[in-house]
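Dissemination and training. As part of the outreach component of the grant, students in the summer workshop were shown how a complex can be specified as a set of sequence lines and then modelled as a single object. The example used during the hands-on session is reproduced here so that future cohorts can follow it. Participants entered these lines:
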Amino acid sequence: MKSKNVQIHELAEICRTVRSDIIHMIYKAGSGHPGGSLSSVELLVGLYFGNVIRIDPARPDWDERDRFILSKGHVAPVLYSVLARKGFYDVSELETLRKLGSILQGHPHMAHTPGLDCSGGSLGQGLSVADGLAIAFRMRQKDSRVYCLLGDGELQEGQVWEAVMTAAQHKLDNLCAIVDYNHVQLDGSVESIKDLGDLGQKWKDFGWNVIEINGHDIEEVLRAYKEAEAYKGRPTVIVAETVKGKGVSFMENDCSWHGNVPSEEQYTQALKEIEEGEVR
Amino acid sequence: MEKIPMRDGYGKALLKLIEADKRVIAMDADVAKSTRTVWVREQYPENFIDMGIAEQDMAGTAAGLALGGMIPFATTYCVFLAGRAWDQIRTTICYNNLNVKLAGAHAGISVGADGATHQSLEDVALMRVLPNMTVVVPCDAVETEKATMAIAETEGPCFIRFGREAVPVVTDADTPFILGKANVLREGNDVTLFANGAMVYEGLQAAEQLKKEGIDLMVVNLHTVKPLDTDTVMRAASHTGRVITAEEHQIAGGMGSAVAEYLAENCPVPVKRIGIKDSFGESGKPEELMEKYGLTAADICAAARALCK
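and obtained this result:
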C-alpha cells in the first residue's frame, strides 16, 4: 500500500542505506555491478518509498499492484536492497547475493525473489514486457501502472526502440519508462561508443511525453513520477541525468566500476564516504 | 484426399478459443493474412494486436501480456519467430515460465519460391533446447486446430509450427490428439517410422508401397517433439528393431535427433533420419523442393529397404 507523508530527508536517509547495502552486497558477493546501481538509487527509492508505486510487501502477488520491470537487470543490487528495506524479505538475505541457493540471483529472476515482476539481464527486453503489461491492464480495465527502468547504454539495443514505438502506438499512458542517463557503459563513455544524441528529443519524436530531471534530486524525482501519473494520452519517459557510481568518489564516472568489486580498503572507504556524504 | 493448409486450422482454433475466453489475444508481426490471424482481426478486433515488423518486441510484449493475465498467441513466419526472437523467448518467456503461445507459420522447405531466407529448417531444434518449452508439429489442418486448442489449455510456453501449403488431411475429428502422446497411425512389424508435419502423409504413402514389397512399416505421428512420448518411442522401436525419422527440418537437432538421443541411451537400434542434411534451401515449387531435398514417400521407402537389407 502507499505510505503517506514521506519526508524528503527520510528518503535521503534511505538512499544512504541503499548505497551502503549495494557496496556491502557486492563486496560480500565478490562480483556485481556497483556503478549503475549507485546511479539509480534515488530513482528507485523515490518510486518505492515516495508514495508512488502501489505495492504491498505482505502480498507480493497482489493482482491490483503496480508493476516494476528492471530492464537494466545488472543493477539488481539496488533493487534487491530497496525490496528488502521495503519489507519483501529479510535484510539478511542481502548477504547471500550471487551465492548458490540464494533468493538473489546475479541478475533478477522473478521465481526466486519476492517482489520481482519479471526477470532481466539480457538488455533491451524490459520495455516490451512493460508494454505488454500496460496493454493487458487496459484490456482488463485495471488501473495498475507499469514502471520500467532502462540504462542509457541499453538504448543501443534495437528492441528498445521497437518497444518505444509500440507504447506510442497504443498510447500507453499507464506506462512510465525511466532512463538512468549516467553516460557510462562497460567499455567507456556512451558518447564515445554509440552516442544517443539529443535523448529527450528522440523520445519526443517517437511520440512520448518526456520529463528531463536531475536523477539524484529526490524532490525532482518525486515530482516527475507525479507528473507522469497525471499525464494522459501518451506514455511518459523520465530521462534522469545521473552520475555513474554516485556517492563513491573513486567510482564516479569511471567505466571500470561498471562491474567491479572493491578491495577491503576500497570497501571501507566507500562505506565511509556514503556515511559522511551530504544528506539534504 | 482433401488438401487444406494447416494455418487454416490454426485460424479456426483461435476463433474458437477467443469465443470461449476473451483473455486469448492473437498477435502478429505484419503477416496476418498469411498466418490467418487476420480472421481474428475481422471477428474480434479487440483481441488482435499487430505488432508491426518487430518480432523481438512481439515476444517481449507477449510476455508482458501473459504477466498481465492474458493468453497471447504470438504469430509470424516461423523463421523470424524462433530465430530472430530466440533470446527473448529464452530469457523472458521460458526462464519466467510464462504462459505464452508461439506459432510459427510457413515452416519448412515447402514454403517454396520465397527461398532459403524464409524456409525455417532449424526452429524445432532452437525451441526444443529451451527449458519449460513444449514443441508441437501437427500433420494437417485438422490436427493443427486440435493442437492449437491443446496448447491453449497447457500452462506455460508452447511452440507450434506449421507449413504454408495445402496438405492432405490425414486425420479427422475423431482422431485422438493428446499433447505429448504420439499417435500410432499404422501398426507394423519390420520398421518404425516416426514422422511429423507434412511427412506423416508421405509416411502413410510409403507404408502402402512397402507393403507390396513385403516390408511392414509402423507409422507413428510424433506430433509432440517435447515432451517426447518416450513410452511409445520405446515400444515401437523395440518391437520393430529398426527406426526411420522424417521431418521437414534439419536432421540435426529436430525430432529425429530427439528420437535418436533417446534410443541411443535406452534402446539402441539402427536409425535413419530423413530431413534436410545440413544445407540451406532454395527457390522452387514446394513439390520440387520436397523431392530434391529427399522428403518424399520414395525417400522413406529407400531408407526402409536399406534398413531391412
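Chain A has a mean pLDDT of 96. Students were then asked to discuss how this feature might be tested experimentally.
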